[in-house]
Amino acid sequence: MFLLVNIIGIFLFMGVAVLFSKDRKNINWQSVGIMLVVNLFLAWFLTSFSIGVDGVKAAADGFKWLVDVSYQGIAFALPDWVHVKQMNFVTSALLPILMIVPMFDILTYIGVLPWIIKWVGRGLAFITRQPKFESFFAVEMMFLGNTEALAVSSLQLRQMKSQRLVTVAMMSMSCVTASILGAYTLMMPGQYIIAAVPINIVNAIIVTSILNPVVVTPEEDTIAKIGGAGSADANTQTTETGSEEVAEAQVEEEVRAEREPFFSFLGDSILGAGKLVLIITANVIAFVALAALIDKVLTIFAPWLTLENILGVIMFPFAWLMGLNVHDAFQFAQYMGTKLVTNEFVVMGKVSPIIKDFQPHFKAMLTVFLTSFANFSTTGMIIGAFKGLVDRKKNDVISKNVGYMLLSGILVSLLSSGLVGLFTW
């Protein structure tokens, strides 16, 4: 029965996208069908087929190995923080970012990461029959993060019509950053973290092609020359802040920047990684403390009235449609709601000590749902990024579609969780 509910839920999530579609007549159902089959295969291959499972476990072990290496640098500077029975959240999950972010930036600087993104994007466009740039961007944002991907695609974005820019903005809600996956794998099952990345890529294209169908002519279906990535500071400084002003300023700086000497580039990357650690730490402390304050105020009126319970009630129907019993669905809904109004680190930090106690179906879907930047604060950061890239008229069109951006991010996370849930019981 729960499997049947899970299947129905997937189609209902897609039905919500159809219901809110801006142009149902121009939805390319053939492309949507192809992408859905591709994602069903990916979900099965990465969670149930031995080769796929071994592959994602190996990738997850690779990230954990990188984290272990980073502890050597942390232990040199802060031995009392590492050589303890139980490292705190900042030391175990966030300080390794100081090594991992520069490592991925080096791969970008020498051209390895852009080469991978280019060819995977082209392959995805060929398979899904979607516009080339949208397919390219879906892959790009999963490696670089939304702000950095927008910055290095600035030339393309300036040439695109407003309707396609709205699609790009909606896709940006569902990204992650490869350099931060190591932190995720320390708190949640690594195999599902890694599996979520390609599934999110395809689902971002599915959802946006339904919500905002755009007819792209052959003349428009081109990819402009991509500018140099420059410093990763544009992404790392704004990933978790939700600040339009900071994002706008950083993207403008990114667009103007020319290719730097290597060690200058590396220094900027390390500085950006340090800022990212501080930003995430500040956000987690502030969000957890504010949630506790809200709970204290709410319990004055009723002992059972808490922020988690309110969010649980709102998100419960969506959680139940993923094949969970009533009790688990309410708990899942609480985590979903908390993630959307705060960020994924708040929820990951909360469930990390008890994640092993969850049932496989619950554990897999929760991990996949949390593996994205989709939350309320991300919308401000994306709009701020576009302000530094396109003219005011186009940016106003994007700003008027904040609701669609949020809906897109939520539906992508729900679809990805539901698809993985089909094969994990």
UniProtKB/TrEMBL annotation:
Residues 192-421 form the Concentrative nucleoside transporter C-terminal domain. The chain crosses the membrane at residues 31-53, 94-117, 165-186, 192-215, 276-294, 300-321, 366-390, 402-423. The keyword Transmembrane helix applies. GO terms for molecular function: nucleoside transmembrane transporter activity; symporter activity. It holds the Pfam family Nucleos_tra2_N. Its main location: membrane. GO terms for cellular component: plasma membrane. Residues 8-80 form the Concentrative nucleoside transporter N-terminal domain. Keywords: Cell membrane, Membrane, Transmembrane, Transmembrane helix. The keyword Iron does not apply. It is found in: Cell membrane. It is a multi-pass membrane protein. InterPro entries: C_nuclsd_transpt (IPR008276), CNT_C_dom (IPR011657), CNT_N_dom (IPR002668). It comes from the Bacteria. Belongs to the concentrative nucleoside transporter (CNT) (TC 2.A.41) family. This is NupG protein. It comes from Pediococcus argentinicus.
